Known about the structure:
16 strands; single chain; 7-stranded parallel beta sheet; Rossmann fold; alpha/beta
Amino acid sequence: MALARQAGLFSLAVRLLRAPRRDLGARSPEEPLPVVRIPRALQRRQEQRKSVCRSSQRPVLVRPGRLLLSARRPEFNQPARLTLGRWECAPLASRGWRHRRACRDFFSIERAQQEAPALRNLSPQASFEDLGLEPRVLRALQESAPAVVRPTTVQSSSIPPLLRGRHVLCAAETGSGKTLSYILPLFQRLLSRPGLNSRRIPSPRGLVLVPSRELAEQVRAVAQPLGSSLDLQVRDLGGGRGMRRIRLQLSKQPSADVLVATPGALWKSLKSQLVSLEQLSFMVLDEADTLLDESFLELVEYILEKSYIAQDPAELEDPFNPKAQLVLVGATFPEGVGQLLSKVANPNSLTTITSSKLHCLMPHVRQTFMRLKGAEKVTELVQILKNHDKANKIGPSGTVLVFCNSSSTVNWLGYILDDHKIPHLRLQGQMPASMRAGIFQSFQKGPRDILLCTDIASRGLDSTLVELVVNYDFPLTLQDYIHRAGRVGRVGSKMPGTVISFVTHPWDVKLVQKIELAARRRKNLPGIASSVKEPLPQQA
């Protein structure tokens, strides 16, 4: 009985296996069965998501007009009227740039306006006199800088609180006139506070701390004509030439009212008791984001410890026990600013002034990104420089800055340009001080209009004559990109600025994609952490 039951079950199984399956359709028994690796519902959702992304990669021009972003492949163009939402899938032209097959691809962020943001929305009636500056300071400004007629947005917001004796942190885009925004009010405060009895060693009443000797020379060149008209002596103190040179500099300027110095040179002078900061009325940290970097932070903290910073504005008015007013100026700011200030001053006494364009791409500068192989960069650079030379022969044009990430690249690239008979200058941190002296001034005034440099030339230097910036090596951080791009399109520049960046490595592509996404969404650059949040007031 059991054997018969087993035989029946076996015959039933054989009939079921031989019977045609309904879900196989017309599939023959010899064909393999389909393998389902993922659930069908999940597969359908993935296909729908891909179709949405493919459709979003083809922005449709509602009407012809200006482009916000133009690319070699027209499907990645974005019209100026189109604004991508926060969660909208962005069609990045640089999405596939990590692969070598993307070489020779490029895209450009076009100009959205012609003038610098610091000059927009200014009232025609705005004047320095309305900000509280005295007539003698206004006369000195007219004599030393007759082209400066109206204050910029940053100057209008910075000068009044500085005149009231507030500690100020001013964060604004490059080229917005930050140097005059602190020189004018602080000079006026010096005039109202006569100096005490002179000491045996130099005791300046004002100190401007800057990260490089080139910037120290530039700030002195701006402040010295103003000081001469106001009977104030302005001197600079740069390092790199040993203690003998520092002693000689200080011996020639014992009565300097304002000292513009680099951290290294001032630190050596304080250690050797060649200078005293006991009579300071103000201290300015210009390009504060660089000064608060690891390379300078220890020196800056020592200098602050040797200074007498006022805890609140009331301490600034004591003529017998002078305290210093603190000013921090920069285009980008790290998060550690508040912690540093809490060590030397009351954070509640700090007035924060920021620009609405802080950490943003400059809308009046055209920025092009080119995906190249490493071996193609030299050829492309030589071609760009030769085209610039041809344009210069046809009509007057601006100068060119070529940025590299290392001093060795600057030297090697200089030899290449020498072989191509392209005259140029070089500026990098490993050059002896005697060779570095005056190079940037020669570049601004001399016949050679091409400067190969490292990031030493990207911080604060006045470059109103620069028309083109070439990032031969793409910058390592977004902060460095902001400062390099800020060498063009500055207040006072008479020519439109252009930035061309060579993109070679995968880490370059990662930064470029962040820049492109910020441009398409009209947002500030991501990842630049800052404790500065209060925007400048909008002017009518």
